[in-house]
Task: inverse folding
């Protein structure tokens, strides 16, 4: 197993809710990220999956230091990134880059593609000598499958998929070790999604990148991830290698999420068991006591309201493929995805 | 599975913003021109020649050049800018079309109608209305342009900083703008300007800047906050860009459009405000030449010599209208929602 | 046949010329049947739905040809007043974005009740009772209390239920749902799709489901019409299409869907981009992206070939495609 390159421990991000204009009073807080542990290993892809409001985007922003956590640590090369500032932080940023979800707002409409992809070199002049930059930008465009001759065009002259390639080229410019991708394909058409996913997989092989790949959908993640963490209301509820999560899920939420993914095969319709959850995700400003998932869980009993289940390998399941971390009092394997004959 | 070759998406969404705009929202944004270059057969495209034509016919199109293209085709813009150009020219060289002296008056000719060489007639003091109307443009344009510059610079700097840094700065600035908004403009002018004895245009300009900046600062603050939420600002921060860089390179170019639009419209209203203050006797004072002063002077004789009131009022109305029309046209061209 | 669209043409005037958003689209829906109109953005699927509903923005849009037969009448020949009566009572629409489709200053109960006071002339009190009944029907918990709440107090999934309640209020014969679950979370999507399917069975309504999601289609549709660049390229019963597509575009789409049950790191991708509607390629619109394209595809527009009694594909080489 490769060495850990990024270690997240006890990460919290709470946003205070205030009332009043002149005299602000704190009346509560939105617990967007509420105790997350993650480990990213060199050269692998860690998929983080959850529904909207589960805190996955906030987690991404914390990982790239766009926000400061309320508590917890993010360790990169033995240093806690959350305590860095100024020059030291800037140096870390060279190595942890981000790809954004919306290709329409993530590129400055007033800048040319060349300026956008070349901006990392302006900010980190030591990364490329001045005379080389233009050539490097052309190379980058070529690497992500764009025509280098289009260097002087503006973002609005490109389609969604092409814009996402521009965003990836910008993320790649400084040769980072880690790329945090926040739903990089969810705004794209199906046929273009596949192009971008394949591109990211190829770049990973070529440049030895480590990805944190955030998605709301388990099916996209399956194609690119080595390990998967499922998030619900600011916490990881289950994590493991991809075969453990997809073929041997033990947390009821993961099972529901897996069964909710439509399978594009009408013959599979009959074979699979559907778990349809009732109700919606509770607000992160009013998190249920005990297990957060209990309000929608069909297994919930009294203990679930009282005790917070910890993310750990359940005693009973140790040894087998179901023996991976799961935050449920009644963790139990349930096969949801029917294998294709 | 063999590796899928990556076809360079050589195609360009050349339709530009306009192509997509006219369709429904769900279909918009993907009206791309289809791939034409050889790359479409799945192999990497050989780079096109150095003179690969751009869809827009040569130069790359920016949002500004698109806006300019729209403006040139807009008759409202053409008419208003021709009027404004004319106003600017006569305020720079009034003697080119009005050879007389605006201060040379002959009481004997007071209130006379038009005559040869004096198409607009004479006012109550026997001054030539035509000459004075032409010279009045200079004051109006000077006050309008300088006050707008002052307001735009002060307002957008303060507003942008408040929007960008937020927190206590923002809270203080917001309260201060509230206070300025609460001051009635004309009453404030009467009070503040009545103590000034200078006859130059500067006190009036200063007063307009003092009361005008909160309007622009609010607009600028809002525009900066909106621009700041875009992912490209986050992307620049994630790259480690410094605050000045983020503000100047990413936020300002995307927040400047509404400031320009509002400033252009405000320019017209500042000209009207100068005339109002001068009419009330606290703005410019004789011997300065101003449409407001002339309107004020002519109003007692409006029954006997309506022309003396009509010409400066007409000039004022046309000027204000021209700037407001210009502002409207600019807004249509720059408004991102219509793009 | 409940709804029979024949050779529908819709054009848009844009700065860059005329966009043929819908270019000879034909399909039919029976009572109690679910037809999925499948396409990527820019395929003309939403414009088709709007033209059928009669809610196309004109200008810039314009229906330039074809027939929309609904219960035997051609809707395109009706006067606006008659058309309005058909909307609501005869056919209703569910939109993607429930939040912007609901009026934020009226309570949910008022908006549901309005359907009955306006169309059925009911008293406010009766209409309110009907509104509660409807909310029960679409399984909104505590309907009696929630009827007094405003749209923003509902979650995304609940708002979409309100939209569905509004659509079924007058018991229409046909519902057109334009990407009804795209804005929702995966676990909520399944709830909403199940609800739609159930209501369709209960009322024997026809359902036209406009979507880009092949997974959703496989779960609920009886028939599929696949659209590309303003045309229907393949239409068939759902099982046939998934078993063996008869058009290379359909095949490409199916292959590019990420799947839970098929592990593999490389996804198949359709190369290139969908065409601009102002500049659709000559011949078959798909030929620049098609792995099977030959010379004839660059010159001749393929007519829909009958693959079987219930199935048609607009491809010169459908036989080869069908055989893989």
Result:
């Amino acid at each position: 197993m490769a060495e850990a390159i990024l270690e997240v421990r006890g990460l919290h991000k709470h946003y205070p809710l205030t009332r009043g204009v002149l005299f602000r009073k704190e009346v509560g807080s939105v617990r967007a990220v509420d105790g997350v542990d993650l480990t990213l290993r060199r050269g692998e892809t860690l998929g983080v999956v959850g529904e909207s409001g589960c805190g996955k985007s906030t987690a991404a922003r914390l990982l790239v230091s766009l926000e400061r956590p309320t508590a917890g640590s993010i360790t990169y090369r033995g240093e806690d990134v959350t305590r860095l500032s100024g020059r030291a932080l800037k140096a870390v940023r060279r190595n942890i880059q981000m790809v954004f979800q919306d290709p329409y707002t993530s590129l400055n409409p007033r800048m040319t593609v060349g300026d956008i992809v070349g901006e990392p070199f302006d900010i980190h002049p030591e990364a490329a000598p001045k005379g080389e930059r233009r050539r490097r930008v052309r190379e980058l465009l070529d690497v992500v499958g764009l025509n280098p001759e289009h260097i002087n065009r503006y973002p609005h002259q490109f389609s969604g998929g092409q814009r996402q390639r521009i965003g990836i080229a910008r993320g790649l410019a400084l040769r980072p070790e880690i790329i945090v991708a926040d739903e990089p394909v969810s705004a794209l058409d199906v046929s273009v999604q596949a192009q971008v996913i394949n591109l990211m997989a190829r770049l990973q092989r070529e440049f030895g990148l480590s990805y944190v790949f955030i998605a709301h959908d388990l099916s996209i993640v399956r194609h690119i991830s080595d390990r998967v963490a499922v998030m619900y209301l600011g916490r990881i509820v289950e994590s493991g290698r991809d075969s453990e999560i997809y073929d041997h899920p033990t947390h009821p939420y993961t099972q529901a999420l897996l069964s909710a993914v439509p399978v594009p095969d009408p013959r599979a319709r009959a074979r699979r068991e559907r778990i349809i959850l009732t109700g919606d995700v509770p607000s992160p400003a009013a998190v249920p006591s005990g297990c957060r998932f209990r309000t929608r869980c069909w297994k919930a009993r009294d203990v679930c309201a009282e005790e917070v289940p910890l993310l750990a390998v359940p005693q009973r399941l140790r040894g087998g493929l179901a023996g991976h971390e799961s935050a449920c009092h009644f963790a139990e394997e349930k096969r949801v995805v029917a294998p294709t004959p | 599975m063999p590796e899928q070759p990556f076809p360079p998406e050589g195609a360009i969404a050349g339709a530009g913003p306009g192509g997509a705009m006219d369709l429904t929202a769900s279909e918009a944004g993907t009206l791309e021109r289809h791939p034409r270059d050889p790359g479409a057969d799945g192999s990497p495209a050989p780079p096109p020649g150095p003179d690969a034509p751009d869809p827009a016919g040569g130069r790359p199109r920016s949002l500004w050049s698109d806006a300019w293209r729209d403006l040139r085709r807009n008759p409202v813009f053409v008419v208003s800018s021709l009027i404004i150009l004319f106003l600017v020219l006569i305020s720079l060289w009034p003697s080119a079309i009005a050879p007389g002296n605006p201060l040379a008056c002959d009481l004997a000719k007071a209130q006379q109608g038009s005559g040869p060489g004096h198409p607009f007639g004479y006012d109550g003091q026997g001054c030539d209305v035509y000459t004075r109307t032409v010279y009045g443009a200079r004051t109006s344009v000077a006050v309008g342009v300088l006050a707008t510059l002052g307001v735009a610079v002060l307002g957008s700097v303060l507003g942008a900083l408040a929007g960008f840094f937020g927190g206590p700065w923002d809270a203080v600035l917001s309260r201060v703008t509230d206070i300025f908004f609460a001051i009635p403009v004309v009453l404030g002018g009467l009070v503040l300007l009545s103590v000034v004895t200078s006859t130059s245009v500067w006190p009036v300009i200063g007063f307009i800047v003092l009361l005008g900046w909160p309007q622009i600062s609010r607009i600028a603050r809002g525009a900066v906050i909106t621009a700041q939420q875009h992912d490209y600002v986050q992307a620049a921060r994630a790259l480690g860009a410094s605050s000045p860089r983020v503000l100047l390179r990413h936020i300002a170019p995307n927040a400047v459009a509404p400031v320009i639009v509002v400033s252009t419209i405000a320019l017209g209203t500042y000209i009207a405000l100068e005339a109002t203050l001068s009419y009330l006797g606290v703005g410019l004072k004789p011997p300065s030449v101003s449409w407001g002063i002339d309107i004020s002077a002519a109003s007692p004789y409006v029954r006997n010599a309506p022309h003396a009131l009509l010409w400066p009022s007409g000039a004022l109305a046309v000027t204000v209208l021209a700037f407001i029309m210009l502002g409207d046209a600019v807004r249509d061209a720059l408004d991102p929602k219509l793009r | 046949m409940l709804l029979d669209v024949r050779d529908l043409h819709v054009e848009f005037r844009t700065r860059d010329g005329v966009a043929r958003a819908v270019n000879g689209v034909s399909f039919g829906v029976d009572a109690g049947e679910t037809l999925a109109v499948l396409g990527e953005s820019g395929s003309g699927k939403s414009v088709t739905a709007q033209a059928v509903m009669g809610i196309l923005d004109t200008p810039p849009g314009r229906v330039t040809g074809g027939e929309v037969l609904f219960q035997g009448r051609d809707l395109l020949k009706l006067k606006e007043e008659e058309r309005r009566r058909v909307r609501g009572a005869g056919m209703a629409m569910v939109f993607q974005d429930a939040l912007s489709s609901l009026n934020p200053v009226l309570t949910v109960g008022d908006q549901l009740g309005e359907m009955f006071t306006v169309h059925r002339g009911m008293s406010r009190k009766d209409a309110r009772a009907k509104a509660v009944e409807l909310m029960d029907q679409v399984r909104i918990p505590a309907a009696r209390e929630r009827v007094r709440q405003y749209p923003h107090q509902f979650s995304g999934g609940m708002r979409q239920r309100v939209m569905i309640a509004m659509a079924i209020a007058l018991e229409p014969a046909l519902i057109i749902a334009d990407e009804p679950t795209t804005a929702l979370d995966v676990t909520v999507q399944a709830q909403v799709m199940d609800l739609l399917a159930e209501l369709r069975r209960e009322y024997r309504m026809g359902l036209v489901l406009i979507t880009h999601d092949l997974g959703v289609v496989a779960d609920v549709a009886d028939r599929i019409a696949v659209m590309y660049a303003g045309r229907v390229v393949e239409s068939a019963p759902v099982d046939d299409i998934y078993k063996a597509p008869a058009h290379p575009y359909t095949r490409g789409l199916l292959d590019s869907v990420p799947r839970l049950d098929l592990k593999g790191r490389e996804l198949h991708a359709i190369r290139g981009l969908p065409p601009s509607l102002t500049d659709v390629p000559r011949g078959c619109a798909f030929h620049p992206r098609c792995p099977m394209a030959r010379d004839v595809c660059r010159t001749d527009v393929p007519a829909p070939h009958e693959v079987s009694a219930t199935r048609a594909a607009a491809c010169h080489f459908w036989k080869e495609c069908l055989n893989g």
Remarks:
- Chain A has two domains: 4-19+27-225, 249-341.
- Residues 4-19+27-225 of chain A form a domain with the Rossmann fold fold (CATH 3.40.50.300).
